[in-house]
Amino acid sequence: MFGNLGDKLSEAFKKFKSKGKLTEADVREGMREIKLALLEADVNFKVVKDFVKKVTERAVGSDVLESLVPGQMVIKIVNEELTALMGGTQAKLTISSAPPTIVMMVGLQGSGKTTHSAKLAGMYKKQGKKPLLVACDVYRPAAIQQLKVVGEQLGIPVFEMGDKADPVKISKAAIEYAKKNGNDMVFIDTAGRLHIDETMMQELKNIKDAVDPTEILLVIDAMLGQDAVNVAESFNNLLDVTGVILTKLDGDTRGGAALSVRHVTGKPIKFIGTGEKLDMIEPFHPDRMASRILGMGDVLSLIEKAEQAFDEKKAEELERKMRENTFTLEDYLDQFKQIRKMGSMEQILSMMPGVKPGALKDMQIDEKALSRVEAIILSMTPKERHNPDILNFQRKRRIAAGSGNTVEDVNKLLKQFEQTRKMMKQLSSGRFGRKGKFRLPF
Length: 442
Fold this sequence. Notes:
There is one protein chain. This protein is of the alpha/beta class. 55% of the residues lie in helices and 9% in strands. The protein is built from 20 helices and 8 strands. The protein has helices spanning 3-17, 24-40, 45-59, 62-65, 70-85, 113-126, 143-154, 167-181, 198-211, 226-239, 256-265, 286-293, 299-309, 312-324, 329-341, 345-350, 369-378, 382-386, 393-403, 407-428, and strands spanning 101-106, 131-135, 158-159, 185-189, 215-221, 243-247, 269-273, 281-283. Strands 3-2-4-1-5-6-7-8 form an 8-stranded mixed β-sheet, sandwiched between helices. A hairpin with a 7-residue loop joins β7 and β8 (281-283). α8 (167-181) packs parallel to α9 and α13 packs across α15. The longest helix is centred in the last third of the chain and has 22 residues, at 407-428. It starts with a helix and ends in a 14-residue tail after the last helix. Residues 430-442 have low confidence and may be disordered.
């Protein structure tokens, strides 16, 4: 996401950085390039105009022009104003003091309402909540079945009354069901249309009046660009939404919607969809997103992803094996699996400081490498996994054939494993305290 915008802003910043001192004319020339970069990213024209005006006013002040590093000061201002443009601080979902918390999901057809209803429910289930999904889209073919499928994958119950029932009655009955069954969060998947129409809006208003939702979240496809802002404005005027979920940000290299929606509607972006998998949803942090756009990384989100994938018991077991030098291929595979839980390698790399948003687009990242590692190790016998030294050519040939790889691939994996094991041995010597507590090697 934001690949093109990040690249264009980086080019504009080069002009600031290349000069030891900046004049007002230098700033205004650079801001013209920033303005063009934002417009090409499909950011709303009024938003761009206001943003450039604010940054310019701050950047031509004496604090910047007389600074020892004026170029860095301009980048700092752009970062701060980008953060403010997207809301300033994280806007969390409101949790009702009298359960259930009712979240009404609205938006156009194809925006990802059904999937993101499930993603949100799954996120809060991990936090100890007991969510219920409600199927109120009785018009789109297979909408109810789709919700049931994703609900089953996440282990979350789905309340439905078929495709002939009235959505208002379904939503009211679902709330009663939730109260009786101890569901403290209810996510109502409403019907969308290919365009905004009076019938659609009236039905949504009726559901709102019937259940008095805690939150009304508007789900918007980020790929819509300028149209996303128009859709957000229309829904907000009629329903007074409480927040926005931007979907398909992983497929939009421009990112204009993320920079425009908050400013135009006054309503915060609360979550973003970053991929197709059911765990690919993140709370929206304006400051972190601004850092990603400017190639400053997003270390906090990276740490949070690592914590979610982190298994404390397995880590303690790994620490013991490092101490005793008994690290096996099964342990090696387990480490790869934990990395995979954090998302794609492209997503992980995009959060690293210094990696520009567009820098990864032409990079050949082999996402299937982890699958090959898994296939090779699983093609081994338990004895071979625990003692790879017994792997002669015949065994390697059998493993290669069984995993759909070559003997060369098997040898490459074994070499990588051996290097990892040596590193583990080095780490284990002299880096454990007297009580066996592992100390980081830095």
